Amino acid sequence: MPGPAAAIVNSSVGRDLIIKFLLGASRDDADSVRAYLTELAREANILPWGVLSEQFGSGNSAPPSVAEIYTDLDTARLEAETEPEARQFMLHIDRMRRVPVQEMADREDRLLITGDPGSGKSTFVKHTAYLLASAAQSQTPADVLATLDPWSYGALLPVYVELRQVAAFAADQKEKQGTVRLFTRYLAHLLDQWSIGSAWDAVRATLTDGETAALLLLDGLDEVSTAQRKLLVDMVNALSDDPDYGRHRIIVTCRPYAYYDMPADHRLRAFAEVTLAPFSTEQVDHFIVNWYRHLSGGPRPQYTAEEVAARLKDLRGAVRRRDHRSLARRPILLTMMVQLHTFKGRLPDDRVRLYKESIDLLLSRWNTRSHDQPTLREFLNLPNLKDEDVERALFEIAYNAHQAEPDSHDSDGEEEVSADITESDLLGWVRPYLNGSDPHAALFIQYIRERAGLLLRHKSDAYTFPHRSLQEFLAACYLTRSDDVNYHVDAAGLVRQDPTRWREVFVLAAGYEQRFGKTSNAVSAVNELCPANCPTHVDPERWTFAQIAGEALLEIGQVAVQRSESGRALWERVQHWLAALVEQPQLPLVK
């Protein structure tokens, strides 16, 4: 029976680094490279954003790995020279031709992949590193590599590096030049951290032998400080130009803001540039199937085949609802939704409860240790920090951002962008909830940079909520729960000032009050917006208020509204307004 070396030689994957070590190198070198590949495969198979809730581990199943739930991603050719151009491109990405990211990785030997936080950049490069490391150790590497389709280069040596760690190493070593030497010194340091420092000589020999090809996967250029970003770009360009390292394939990932904020002559040279597209319906379905396949597999499955079939049917239907559809297209938010579905057996029927439970789940990520990362309290060294303080800080941040933003509604009406929140504003808004401390506010911002969840950095000095609907919901929570707001009067006043900006916030606030036991407050707010009976002739603005009042009443629910005499009168009054509205020659509908 052929041994491992013969199995690899007989495969059709072409030149393979393990052939060299098993057939021509010393046993120590072969063992060193094998140790490197084993550790890389383990590290790369951990989900980059972690499990959003500690509750996942309460059942029989362990958290899923990258390989178990990975879903192929699509890209579009990014046509932008500046950060604002990149943002506009992203708004209309569904109009662009979609090309699988794996096809681009196969086609281009120098590839820059951009994408918003939680779009899947790190998941893609980690999945690629994991498969290449696994293939290089497999007796049937061709079977493993078949997952990378298309892929024309066999079991290349994978080198996965987080660029923020290289930047930290450079700062610690007082390294001022972005060179190949910085890269190799960091790799040696990384292997020491993995307790396999003895593997470095063998790995370096493989990278520089002039024969064995590698794939350098350089993740997270955006996570490097602005001051150090040029250093890392210089390092990548040096690798690309170097006689030894330049023959290797290179993939770099970055958020759009970080790349297009840099001067053109400070960017990567001769790299093809693509950006990740949101999930399609088919990709959403694939992710959901993989998730529940994980829960139904293994020695102690959490669900039977019949239970999985029922859950898949329910969740597929839920993510197609208009309220849920745009959230589900973003991988990090889809992960949140499938976890909610896992724990509760279904997604909430109404969007208010979905947003509330989603916020709770995302907040729990800041309160949960993940792969030795501290909780928010530990990081801030504020053991008495209350969840309510953090929650109220987020309410105020969302409200202030929503109030200050320019009109940001996309013309297509399908996707709307969240407000930009400058770092200076964020510092000022969060400081009062952290003992009025500037250092603690700065640490809070540092923490959310590294643990994307409810706030995402998407420019060098600006942050945003992961979805506009979550921003609107949190702003609605501020209206209903802040001591500084007279909810039912102030909410109606905001709508009168700017109906387009505050429409969704007003409707969500009414729904929130009803869901959590304050229906009379919600009815009072709607009554404040539409207090009078419908006259024969009114200005279009009043029609707009009546329409928004009708939407808010539907969000509260007919049964809840009509439990009181004042609610029944309000329901009838708004009905009359809407009946008169549809008789108008041109309906003044709010977009």
Number of strands: 10
Largest sheet: 7 strands, mixed
Q: Could you name the ranges where pLDDT drops below 50 across 5 or more consecutive residues? A: 1-25, 56-60, 408-415
- Tally the helices: what do you get? 29
Strand order of the largest sheet: 2-1-7-3-6-5-4
Percentage of residues in strands: 5-15%
Using the CA coordinates, give the radius of gyration: 27 Å
Helix content, binned percent: 55-70%
Mean pLDDT: 82
**Kindly, what is the distance between the CA atoms of the first and last residues, rounded to a whole number of angstroms?**
71 Å
Structural class: alpha/beta
Principal-axes geometry comes out as elongated
Give a concise summary.
The chain is an alpha/beta fold. The protein has helices at 4-9, 17-23, 27-44, 66-69, 83-91, 101-107, 121-137, 141-145, 163-172, 180-193, 200-208, 226-241, 256-260, 281-296, 305-319, 322-328, 331-344, 351-366, 376-380, 387-404, 423-430, 438-450, 468-481, 487-497, 499-515, 519-529, 540-556, 558-561, 565-582, and strands at 74-77, 99-100, 110-114, 157-162, 214-219, 249-254, 272-276, 421-422, 456-459, 462-464. Helices cover 56% and strands 7% of the residues.
